[in-house]
Each structure stands twice: as structure tokens, then as C-alpha cells.
Amino acid sequence: MLTGRQIREARYLLGWGRVRFSQKTSVTQAMVAAIESSDGPAWLTKEQESAIRQALEEGGVEFIPENGEGPGVRLRKVDPT
Q: What domain of life does the native source organism fall in (predicted)?
């Protein structure tokens, strides 16, 4: 399950505004604002979570599982070759 904080931070890492993010995920800007207003679990349908995860991963984000400090995100390392 993605958290509002992960989604907010992933969008920030990619430099995506809410308009662009909404276009890529088909999730309304109002819904994005509501999701990101909480650090906790993002209460999404399976379809919404899948669309959000796919868009962010295709953009270059990697989701980090719970590691004692909570789940997170980072940009995927690019192979220089």
C-alpha cells in the first residue's frame, strides 16, 4: 500500500506538478491533493494505486519498503553504460 507521503515525495522528485501527475494517472487534481494531505496510507482503489505506481515507476521512481523508519521513495539509479 502506498502512502500519501510516498506519492507526494515521488512527485516532487520527478518535478511533476499536480496537473501533469493527474494527466499521467487519470486521478483528479482534487484527489491528488486529498491523497497527499496525509502521510499515512493512501486509500485508493486497486486501479488508482496501480496507475499511480506505474506512472511514478515509469518516471524513474523506486519505492522503498518499510525499513524501520517507514516506507519511502528514491530515484532509480541509472546505468551509465
A: Bacteria
CA 67: distance to chain centroid? 18
What does pTM read for this prediction?
Answer: 0.88
CATH of 4-75, one of 3.30.70.380, 1.10.260.40, 1.10.418.70, 3.40.50.10610: 1.10.260.40
For the chain, the structural domain boundaries read: 4-75
pLDDT tens-digit readout, 6-25: 999 999 999 999 999 999 99
- 46-61 pLDDT tens trace: 999 999 999 999 999 9
Task: Name the β-bridge partners of 64.
Answer: 72
Q: Which three cell numbers stand for residue 17?
A: 506538478
Residue 2, C-beta contacts closer than 8 angstroms, at least 6 positions apart: 41, 42, 44, 49, 52, 53, 63, 71
